[in-house]
Every structure is written in structure tokens, then in C-alpha cells.
Specification:
The protein is mainly alpha-helical. Helices cover 64% and strands 3% of the residues. A two-stranded antiparallel sheet has the order 1-2. Helix 4 packs across helix 16, helix 6 packs parallel to helix 10 and helix 9 runs antiparallel to helix 10. The radius of gyration is 24 Å and the shape is globular.
Length: 389
Amino acid sequence: MSTHTTTYPLRAPAVAVPGHSKLVRRVLIVSGLAASFLLLLLAVFDLEARQALPIAVLLGLTGQRFVELALTRRHDLFEPVNAVAAYFILYFAFRAVYVLGYPSATRIGYFSYDDYLQAALWCASLGYFAFSTGYYSNIARRILTHLPAGRRTSPRTAPGIRISLLLIAGFAAWVYLFRQGAFVVGAVSEEAGRRFHSDPVPGIAVLLGSLLDFGWVAVCVSVMRKERQANQVTVWVVGVLAVLLLAVRIAYTGGKQYMLEPMLEAMIVYHYLRRHLQMRHAIMLGLPCVFLAFGALNVYRFVIIGESGGAPTSFQDLATRVSYAWDYFTSDRTDGLQHSALESLMSRQFGVDALALVIKYTPERREFGYGASYLTIPQQTFIPRQLWR
């Protein structure tokens, strides 16, 4: 089988180390954004100055990255710093505005922590500043200049059989997990979910389930290559198989990540193999997907599943749930929809909430372990679960 080889330099993302003028420009952008967000938070959301200030600083630090991304074409849309900035915006800044602006918002755990949200936001701002400082440093670039060039070898024909085996093996692992009651929509609140946490399935099944995602990425690479494949029919047949298996997994699990991750993976492959996407493309493609996941999929998880007989445990049950969902969405019903897509998106409690809890109650609630739990890693890793559960 003939191959096509491409040689490319092993390098860091195309980000130049900021000089004095660039540093001044970034400071001005951060200051301008922080001042604008501070006025907005005080006027629109009626927050106190001590609450609004750390949120504005964090939004200024993270927003500066997206301002540069929107104004220049030098930056890569899928650089890691963009994902980190988006995480801090969503899980820390926006979540803090939601919690402080709406007292009825759901909190995490049983202990109060609202009085430590400001401290958590200042820590988040410091953490992002430290990360971005290291990201823009020249240390990694100096190391990469001494590494050899990388080579990418692409076959002339797509390995359809091998990709199909990846997809089938990954889906078979998911079927096994479904049979054990793991990762099934609604199972967290049912007996199956409690049994899964008290007597978990073998970890190898969870690892093999990721082969479905690897197969999907391979399909995307085969479809989106600039060089035309010799076996186009095989590629598209395997692509249809991958879409069907991913759709079944979404219907079984009801997980938002299983809808968003394949779309993001396809965008990344298209970005690096066909045409570099800009931030406007990400917004046009990403926003509908996000609202679909946090809107329609939430209705499926919390309304349709309950009305149609509970979590599916077989393919016949799955067909019944999908048919009921089709009738539900085509009938223009609105009853049972308790939360909008935006409210569901803001109900992410594992950012500023978790950090505020840690700051407030550590070590008062539980003394520091000073790494004692790491001493049990060897016995937890090498003793089979059948001998020690």
C-alpha cells in the first residue's frame, strides 16, 4: 500500500513571545475589559463592588485572549490556552455571576460558601495569570528547537477495515457497560447507578469504550484529507457506521459530552487538514450545538425518559424512547421543561463553587493529608479488584 509522507517541524503553536510593545498592548486590553465588565456587573447585575471586582479582573484576563484571537489571524483557534480561558470564563466568572446574581441558584454540597466566592475568584485570576505567563514564555520554544522534525505518513487508501474494528470494539465495550447499568441515562438516581458506584465494572471496559472516539477521529481524518482517497465508498460507509454508533451512545447515555466531543473532534480535524477556522466560525458552529445539548438533550434526560418508562436497558427500550422523543418534540409541547438551555449551562458547580468550598473548609473540616493517600497507590494499582474491592 503506497503512502504519502509529509515532513513538518515539531514546534509550539505560532505565538510570538510578547515584546515590550505587545506587553503594553495586552495590559491596556486587560484594563479596558476589566473596567467595562466592572461597570456592567455593577449596573446590570446589581452586584457589590467587592463581588464584581474579582469577576471583572478574571474576565479581563481571559477576555484579552479572545480579543487577540478575533483581531489577528496569527493565533490558532485550538491552542490550549483558548480552552483554558474558556473554562475559566464559564466555570468561574459566569458561574459566579449566576450564583451571586440569583440567590436561588443551586449550590454544591451541604455547607455554605458564598462568603468565600470572592477569595476563590481572586485565586482563579492568579491561577490563570500564572498559566498564561508560562504559556507565553520562551522556555518551551527553546526546548522544541532541539527536537527532531516530525513525519506524518498518510496511506493512499483509507484503512476502512481497521477503522471499522476500532468502532465495533469501542461500541461493544459500551454495550457491555450498558448491560451492567453504567452510563445509562437516568441511572445515577436509580439502583443501577448506586450499584455501579459500590461495585464498579472492570476499568478495562471503560478504556476500550474510548476506541469508539478514536475510530471517529480516524473517520474524520479519512474524509477531510485534501488528497482524495482511492476508496471513497468505503470511507463514507464507515463514516455512516460511526455516526450511527455515536447516535446510539448519545441516546443511551444522554450525556452532553458525547454530543459535543465528536463535533469538536471533527472541527479540529477540519481545522488542521482543510482550512484554519476563525473564532467566528467556532461561534456559528458551537453555539447551536451547545444550546442543543443543554436544551433538547436535557429535556430528553429529565422529561422524556421519565415519561416513557425510565432509562433504556435494551435496544427495544431505546427505540421506544427515541420514538417518544420524536413525538414529544414534534408536538410543540413545553410542559415539563423546568430549566432553559442557558440555566442548564450555568449549573456547572465544579469550578468556583468547589474552589470556594476548599478554601473555606480546609483544613478545618478535614486535616491536611500531606500526601499520605499517595502511599496507597501501589496496592490500589497492582492488587486485582477481585481480591480487594
